[in-house]
Structure formats: structure tokens, C-alpha cells
Amino acid sequence: MLPKKVLVVCTGNTCRSAMAMQLIIKLVAETSFGMTVDSAGVRVDNKGSPSPSQAIEVMKSYGCDLSQHRSKPVTEELVDWADAIWVMTQPHLDMLQADFPMSKCKAERLNVNADIADPWSQSVEVYHTTCLQIEAAIRNRIAAAKAEMQDNKVQESEDQEVKQTQDQPQTNSESVAPIANANDSDASAITAASAASAAAAAASASA
């Protein structure tokens, strides 16, 4: 399942983590999942820095407004707040865990299989490529969460069927059959005896 509170982390919190935060909010809103997202940087030199124009332009194509974003550093409060922390690269993960050891149990790369490189000071096209990589990683996580939720529903349904079967009253057909046969034999014997008595009485009357 997807975590409820996510902190997205990159280096300076002006490009990748800022874009990722906006994309997560947008993509998760299209699902039935609920999530609160924040972003920060492991090495923020100038707190309060805006996102570069390339990032703002690329995010506009997704219908997201990054113009009001301002950078901030990772803090102990943010680490404690988050259920999960998604970073962009392995060096980010190493720095985060060195600075905040409590993050080890909740931090991992956004794309668990590869780093997402920094597009800083490069062209809009490079920013767009970076954004596509971030989007793909987010969609993979959402898809995995949906698959897990479906598996859980199937398992719950199977468990319910088993429970209903176990709750059904059990009948012992083997014990009923002999009793029925015994009663049938007694009834037959009584009927035969009655018939014999009637025949004897008729014979006596005739004599």
C-alpha cells in the first residue's frame, strides 16, 4: 500500500524533489489513495530559493504550478513526520541516513532500481526527461499499490468463503442410515406378526 505521509528529497530542493512532490499530488489524486506530500533537500545552501524557470515551465505542461515553491532543508521534524521518504539517488540516501539515522527504516530511492540525475542548469528538454523519469517511478509505485490492494481483496474473499464453509452445520449421514434401517425392520416385523394373527383368527372362525 502507499504510505499516508511522504517526504521527497533531493539535493537543493529546487528541482527534482519539488517536481516530484507536485507530480505525486497530481497522480495520487487520480486514484482512491490518500496521501500528504512534502519535499526538502539534504544540502540546501540557500533556504527559500525558488525553482528554476526550466522546472516551472516543464511542470506547467502537467498542469502544476511550481512558481511559489521555496526550498527548505531536511529536518528531524520532517523525518519524524513522514511515513516514507523517497530520495532521488543513492548518495542522497547515504547522506540522509548519516544525518538522520532514524530515517533508515523509512527511506529509499523513488526509483528503487536507478538514480534520477540532477538536471540543474541544463535545458528544458533535460528537465522534461527528468520529469518523465520521476513520473514513471511514481506510476510504478501506484501500480504496485493497486496490485497489492487487489491481492488483498482476493485473499479476503477466499478467507470469507472458507469461514462460511466452516460455519455451516455438519450432518452425520452414516449414523442416520442404520437407525432408519432398524426402524424399517421393526415396522416390517410388526406388520408381519399382525398379518399372521389375522390369518389364524380367520382359520378358527372357519372351523
Largest beta-sheet characterization:
4 strands, parallel
Q: Helix count? A: 6
| Overall morphology | elongated
Order of strands, main sheet, comes to 2-1-3-4
**C-alpha Rg (nearest Å):** 37 Å
How far apart, in Å, are the first and last alpha carbons? 98 Å
Descriptive overview:
The protein has 6 helices and 4 strands. The protein is α/β, with parallel strands linked by helices and 207 residues long. The protein has a 4-stranded parallel beta sheet, sandwiched between helices. It is elongated, with a radius of gyration of 37 Å. The N and C termini lie far apart (98 Å).
Tell me the layout of helices and strands.
Blueprint: E1 5-10, H1 16-29, E2 36-41, H2 53-60, H3 76-81, E3 84-87, H4 90-99, E4 107-109, H5 124-167, H6 173-206
Parallel strand pairs: 1-2, 1-3, 3-4
Helix pairs in contact: 1-5, 2-5
In short:
Helix 1 crosses helix 5 and helix 2 (53-60) packs across helix 5. It contains six helices and four strands. The model has no long low-confidence stretch (mean pLDDT 87).
